[in-house]
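Researcher: We are triaging several targets before committing to wet-lab work. For this one, the compound of interest is flavin-adenine dinucleotide. I'm pasting the protein sequence and the ligand SMILES. What I need is the predicted three-dimensional arrangement of the protein with the ligand bound, expressed as structure tokens, so it can go straight into our comparison scripts without reformatting.
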Amino acid sequence: MGLSVVVVGGGIGGLFTANALLAHGFDVTVCEQAPALGEVGAGVFLTPNSVRHLHRVGLQAAVEKFGARVGTGSHYFRHDGAPIAPVQVADASGWNATFGMHRADLVELLANALPDGAVRTGHRAVGFEQDDRKARVLFANGATVEADAAIAADGIHSELRQFVAPPSRPVFHGSVAYRGVLPHYLIRDWPTDRWLMWLGRSKHFLTFPVRSGQLINYVGFVPADAEMKESWSAPGDPDLLRAEFEGWEPRIGELLGQVQNTFRWALYDREPLPVWTKGRLTLLGDAAHPMLPHLGQGANQSIEDGIALGTILAKADRTQVTPALAAYERLRRERVAAVQRGARENGMRYDSAYSDLGVRDAEIRAHAEFRKKLYSHDVVPEAQALAQSLG
Ligand SMILES: Cc1cc2nc3c(=O)[nH]c(=O)nc-3n(C[C@H](O)[C@H](O)[C@H](O)COP(=O)(O)OP(=O)(O)OC[C@H]3O[C@@H](n4cnc5c(N)ncnc54)[C@H](O)[C@@H]3O)c2cc1C
């Protein structure tokens, strides 16, 4: 058996990382605070830069089965339906592995690939200790899990971040996202093979298919009201959602006419952290780098984190855990900070925060090049090279 690793948080980042570590023969335990694994009723957009790693850990068939492939008909429009530009869905080599996925399906397929007993639910991490031999995570239920390394994948409100980085406050961006899924049979004319986005003043609206096109995921981004400034997530009122997009291209109104329940998320990120790692503890996913959803990269970057970490730790022996985690941080911190910044910039484009929308539209067209680079990145060769340098 290789090194032992405790992963705190059974979200997309933590569960993928457990898969990546198991592929290298590690002894992995995932500790999740909730009584059962699960996810909200909304979609996540998977792009080639993470799908190649899902393939690497043997999940290609599961992704094809549960995902909905998003193709070249994907498009940006102005709010009234005037076309702006095609959406880049392939990497620079033309490889299109872009999928809409129901978040619950992704969590389920990642969890199902783990051995029985690898996930412990009802474990809320409340403390952390380490010495030159082991990392120890302490849980509210009185349990302690000891391992060679500890990975904090416990989300934007990470409890374990305080053991690594100086305190920082999440940054609120004044917007909320209404999210939900609709059965496709309610909106039979809606395409099931493309990502579609409409851009208006301070608002934008997105749809993509999930679960083989049986469901259509929608997200409506709108300015926050006073209530949402106080809360992270809350049930939304479908009538208020419909009112937000009144006067937009009529097919949006037809889709929203079918919505009976919806949920709202306030949009927060953080400034890039100066440090992710302390000794045997490192941060991963939203715990390390929460970002705005305007590049659709939060989950994708957590998957890149997980494969990079597994690749580097695989070359470490028990005496090299600390330098291996530091190498992971060095590899990931700058790339992810650039994606965090890129998501903020794209939010300005999507919310039409430009005096000249012609300039904005030109930037959206040009943005295909940014996405090609983003999607072509393969973190594994760089991680392998860094791992060699551990000695
Ligand atoms: C509106 C919106 C749309 C988005 N769309 C996309 C998209 O299309 N593509 C994309 O890539 N990303 C998207 N994202 C971002 C993405 O959802 C996140 O970046 C991603 O889910 C992060 O995963 P994570 O595992 O790091 O954190 P989380 O999903 O937050 O998981 C953290 C887990 O840790 C658990 N936990 C928390 N505290 C503790 C504790 N103390 N002890 C034990 N367990 C704990 C939680 O219960 C949870 O299960 C979107 C986000 C938003 C808000």
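Researcher: Any quick observations?
Model: The radius of gyration is 21 Å.
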